[in-house]
Write a structure and sequence with these properties.
By secondary structure, the protein is mostly beta strands. The chain has no helices and 11 strands.
């Protein structure tokens, strides 16, 4: 199983980034997908989660109204659209797939919000 994130980078406050996670080696539609982030010196935290394309997504309070998670089961991808970015959004962002006891993580992509 592989989860490969892309789309991170440096952006100014107020800007936008779109992260993508491409999954392979698993039956993608059977997995709930989520994005997490970890800032230096802090614990990894859940950012957004989507069980399937028909469900409502769950978001951390800190990103509600700014971030949107979506998935494309035909392409085995999950994306995180991040708008109105703030310096406190700076972190390594990780994609996660989970189903029952099976959990897989991507390698992470750095997002830096700075002027």
């Amino acid at each position: 199983v592989q989860l490969v994130e892309s789309g991170g980078g440096l952006v100014q406050p107020g800007g936008s980034l779109r992260l993508s996670c491409a999954a392979s080696g698993l039956t993608f539609s059977n997995y709930a997908m989520s994005w997490h982030r970890q800032a230096p010196g802090k614990e990894r935290e859940l950012v957004a989660m989507l069980f399937n394309a028909a469900d409502s997504a769950n978001y951390a309070d800190s990103v509600k109204g700014r971030f949107t998670i979506s998935r494309d089961d035909a392409k085995n991808t999950v994306t995180l659209q991040m708008n109105s970015l703030k310096p406190e959004d700076t972190a390594v962002y990780y994609c996660r797939a989970f189903a029952r006891t099976m959990i897989y993580w991507g390698q992470g992509t750095q997002v830096t919000v700075s002027s």
